Amino acid sequence: MKTEGGSDAAKRRAGERAAEEVADGFVVGLGTGSTTAHAIRALGRAVDDGLEIRGVPTSFQSRQLALEVGIELTDLDAVDGLDLAIDGADQVVDDPDAAAHGALIKGGGAAHAREKFVDAAADRFVVVVDPSKLTDRLERSVPVAVLPDAHTVVADRIRDLDGEPTLRDAGEKDGPVVTDSGNLILDCAFGSIDDPDELATRLSRIPGVVEHGLFVDMADATYVGTDDGVAVRRY
Ligand SMILES: O=C[C@H](O)[C@H](O)[C@H](O)COP(=O)(O)O
Question: Which atom of ligand 1 is nearest to the CA of 106?
Fold first, then answer.
C-alpha cells in the first residue's frame, strides 16, 4: 500500500469523515490508497455496529481490505448505480478562481482506470486527502494505463504532446508494474498543466491508452484532513 507523504492522522480524519456520510442501504464505491483505507476501516466498524451496505471495490487492494473488515461486496453490473464513492487523490487543484478547481491527478497506486468508472457511476464522489495533496496547478506526472503491446507507440504520442513518459518499474520485482487489469503504466511528466481538461481529451484520443489519471469535473467534494480537523471543499 502506498503511504508516503502527508500525516496519517490527517488521512484518517479525512477518510473517517467521508465514511460518516454512508447511510443504511447505500452502495458505496471503495477507492484505493492509504487515505481511503481509513474510510474502509471506519465502514467496517460501522458494519459491525449494524450498518447495512454493499461496496464496489476499485482494486485488488480495496477488495481485500473490505473483505477483511466485513463489508459485503458487489459488482458494478449487479447494481443500478452507486450512492457514494470515496476515493483518494495524488493532487487536487485548490483554487476557487481556477477553471480546474477540484480537478485531480490519480493513479499513484496504478488503480485509476477502475477508480474512474466506479467514481463516475456514483451519485456523489467524495475525495479524501491530506493537505500535502492540495495545489494551485496540477504538476505531478500523469499516470497513463496502456495496453502492454502499445507502450512504445503511446510513449511516442505522449512526446508529441510535449510530455516525458517513463514506464513505471515494479521496483523489487524485475519488470514493469502490471495493473489489476493487466495493463502497463506510463508516468507522463507535462510540467505545470495549463488546461487539464484539454490534456485529458488529448490523452483519451491516443490509440492504446486504456485510461489516464486526470479526473476533471468529476468530484463533488474534497475532504481535507488536517492535524486537528477536516476542511470541506464543495464543487
Ligand atoms: O491508484 C491509486 C489511487 O488513485 C489513490 O487513490 C491515490 O494514489 C491516492 O493514494 P493515497 O491516499 O495513498 O495517497
Answer: 4
Q: Pick from 11, 212, 38, 223: which is nearest to 112 by CA?
A: 212
Q: Are residues 12 and 71 in the same domain?
A: yes
Burial (CB count <10 Å: 0-12, 13-18, 19+), residue 49: exposed
Active site residue 115: yes
ipTM score over 0.90, yes or no? yes
Judge if 167 and 124 occupy the same domain. no
pLDDT in tens, 167-204: 999 887 789 999 999 999 999 999 999 999 999 999 99
The helix-helix angle for 60-68 and 34-48 (nearest 10°) equals 30
pLDDT at 135: 98
34 is in an annotated binding site: yes
Q: Which of 16, 20, 115, 172 is catalytic?
A: 115
The percentage of the chain sitting over the pLDDT mark of 70, rounded to a whole number, equals 98
pLDDT tens sequence across 73-84: 999 999 999 999
5 annotated ligand-binding residue: no
Scanning 110-216, the segments in alpha helix (DSSP H) are 112-120, 151-160, 196-204
Pocket of ligand 1 (CB under 6 A): 2, 31-35, 87-90, 106-112, 115
Residue-number span of the structural domain to which 31 is assigned: 8-136+216-234
